[in-house]
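Workshop exercise sheet. Pairs work together: one partner reads the sequence aloud, the other fills in the structure field after running the prediction. Swap roles for the next sheet.
Pair: D.N. / O.F.
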Amino acid sequence: MNIVILGAGGLGSVYGGYLARGGQEVTLIARPAHVEAIRRGGLHISGYEEFTVPAGPYLQATAEAATVRQADLLLVTVKTKDMEAALADVAHLRPAMVASLQNGVLKDEQLIEAFGAQAVLGAACILGATLLGPGHAACTIFGMTWFGELDDRRTERLERVVAAFRAAGLKVEVPDSIRSAEWSKLCQILPAATLSALSRLEYHKVCQSPDLAYLFVKLTRECATVAAASGVPLGDYEGFNVRTLAEAPFEEAVAMIQERGRRLEARGMTEVRISMLQDVLAGRRTEIEAIAGDVVRRAQRLSIAVPATEFAYRAIRGIESWL
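Structure field:
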């Protein structure tokens, strides 16, 4: 399968490295320094596993999107704040399939507008990655990836994508409802990202704090209310038990978040900094509009009050106003 990865930073590079090692023809569209390092010494992946994929027939890299002419699967991994410009760069492409592993649910609407509904697959992931330097990406969380047709049919092309990811050694599933998986991931990342960015704490500390765990559940439930009003049932998935957090007695749900933090610490995962926190610390714009901002706007259209989400949204926008 010819797979083009648009925005190959940490996440896109980890996926690209695994897929190329697994025998897929992968083209990374990335920043010039990353591209040059890959061309010289290959793409080095560390973290969960350590290996290097040389540039060659299974791995190509370019900083010029216009030079890419064909894709069986276009996989979008740019930050959501860069989505509009990135899609403009590949407007000439007509991929057979396109999917986004970005956070949020707005992404599918953007892909439909750019490529037509027939090309779009829904997707979500719990895989974490960071770019350590040009040519070197680390997998920080080796989690699940979900793909699905937007109408939840099991199609031949969907099975081809799943087979390619499995052959690469990646964890992948087709959920009963891909929109449920996407919304459930949003209900997880919204509190994790905003509370990390506002507190500037590592993820395990966010979870262990009684007050932040309280807010975590509050934010999860506001997002879940918007999902339900949008006709999307939530589920429990590997890495984010959103339905349970939304339905359990409140204090039990808070205790679950705190226990999650203790488990992370016990496993040595004490350096996990959510990408929104990384952006704030680096003085970069965040994905707040596509995460909390999108939920706030959907809530307003549905006449649903989401006070905690709106506070987090406006607080982080306030930080960004000085960047």
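Discussion prompt: The chain has two domains: 2-174, 179-320. What would you look at next?
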